[in-house]
Design goal:
CATH superfamily: P-loop containing nucleotide triphosphate hydrolases
Bound molecules: cytidine-5'-diphosphate
Low-confidence stretches: none
Number of strands: 5
Helix content: 40-55%
Strand content: 5-15%
Oligomer: single chain
Distance between the termini: 16 Å
CATH class: Alpha Beta
Order of helices and strands: EHEHHHHEHEHHEH
């Protein structure tokens, strides 16, 4: 079974995707990390993220980088959204994501274009939403826990900037697949969001993949 989980920054899609992977015993790929690794490599190599050829050169990043916790910082997220707008960067990371999705038994992938581009035939598709304020509050708390001193207002401005960039780009913009179910986590606890996600997958797959 392939499960596609898409949505904007800090909507809760990563937590939901990890929980679905655990529940169904499937491997999980956080595809945002790939774009974050490209962004970090651009920075290490002192390249220009706005130049497509520079960003493409960074797609051949070191695998070990994917385990680096600094990939999760806000600055890397912003730069990831710049490099990810280049069509050749997306093309360069496409096969890797499709191979992961196509492994025997299936997989859970989360990102921006999983249900639309990477796995349009996924068995289940979720589009996770929450208001910008609530997403900023969550991201702010997460960043603070990791020692960041960014203000709430800066985090909210960054989230809005990233939403605009991710939705406005020509190549694989952040849009909900027509056959994806919306899961609004604005007023749901993590547990309730996960429960609802499992219900959606069950509804979409018609009990084909029930687990114990
Ligand atoms: O966790 P958060 O939602 O903040 O970010 P992420 O999922 O790690 O993604 C970082 C950036 O990578 C996003 O702002 C997107 O621009 C880009 N991205 C993308 O274009 N396509 C994906 N499938 C995943 C991420």
């Amino acid at each position: 079974m392939i499960i596609a989980v898409d949505g904007p920054a800090a909507s809760g899609k990563g937590t939901i995707a990890r929980a679905l992977a655990r529940h169904y015993g499937l491997p999980n790929m956080d595809t945002g990390l790939l774009y974050r690794a490209v962004a970090a490599t651009v920075r290490h190599m002192a390249l220009d993220p706005t130049i497509e050829a520079d960003a493409v050169a960074a797609c051949d990043f070191d695998e070990e980088l994917l385990a680096d916790p600094t990939l999760r910082d806000d600055e890397t997220g912003q730069m990831a959204s710049i490099v990810s707008a280049h069509p050749l960067v997306r093309a360069s990371l496409l096969q890797r994501q499709r191979r992961f999705a196509a492994q025997p038994g299936g997989a859970v992938l989360d990102g921006r274009d999983i249900g639309t581009v990477i796995a349009p035939d996924a068995d289940a598709k979720l589009f996770v939403r929450a208001t910008p304020q609530i997403r900023a509050r969550r991201r702010h708390a997460e960043l603070q826990a990791n020692g960041s001193v960014l203000s709430f207002d800066k985090v909210l401005a960054d989230i809005r900037a990233r939403d605009l960039r991710d939705s406005g780009r020509a190549s694989a913009p952040l849009v909900q697949a027509v056959d994806a179910a919306t899961l609004d986590t604005s007023f749901l606890s993590i547990e309730a969001s996960i429960q609802r996600a499992i219900e959606i997958v069950t509804e979409q797959t018609g009990q084909k993949f029930v687990t114990g």
